[in-house]
Amino acid sequence: MTISMSNALGNHEQGLLMRSRRAEVLSNNLANADTPNFKAKDLDFKAAMQAASSGQSAGRVQVDKTHEGHMQLSGSGGADILYRVPSQPSIDGNTVDSQVEIAEFSKNAVEFQASFQFLNAKFKGLTSAIRGE
Questions:
Q1: Which of 28, 108, 21 has its CA nearest to residue 58?
Q2: Lower CB density within 10 Å: C or N end of the chain?
């Protein structure tokens, strides 16, 4: 009997990737907290996961190589990246609220850890099943 890893693990792998991507977006917001006219962004986790589970590319852009010397690229079109609406506008046009970003980053880190622990438990279960324990 063959074991399909995608069936065994479900969409938890995609969840970890999306949480990691969201951490990048949130840390970019924090890094640009003092940059004039910087607009805070966030990842629409639910939309990204729905796109990933339905087999869609979640905002991915396919770039064709026209010459063998060109580098292969795979970029994100940012379809699941949204601008955050500021609770209080700033004079310099920056929409980053550091406290909100830190709270969202912390929440995302906890959710990432929970997903990771669940995935780890799945791997342990599969390992036990393979060993016949």
A1: 21
A2: N
Q: Is the pLDDT reported for residue 21 higher than 70? A: yes
pLDDT digits (tens, 9 = 90+) for 24-47: 999 999 999 999 999 999 998 888
pTM of the model: 0.73
> Both tokens of residue 73?
């690229």
d(CA 14, CA 48): 9
Pull the structure tokens for residue 50. Answer: 């729905």
What integer is the mean pLDDT of 63-70?
Answer: 57
Distance CA 89, CA 40 (A): 12
Q: Write down the residue that tokens 């880190």 correspond to.
A: 109
49/39 Cα distance (integer angstroms): 24
pLDDT of residue 61: 41
Under 8 Å CB-to-CB from 15, ≥6 apart: which residues? Answer: 49, 115
Tell me the CA distances in angstroms from 12 to 17, 27, 47, 62, 107, one per residue in order.
Answer: 9, 22, 15, 24, 17
Q: Pick the closest to residue 85 from 71, 95, 98, 93 (CA basis).
A: 95
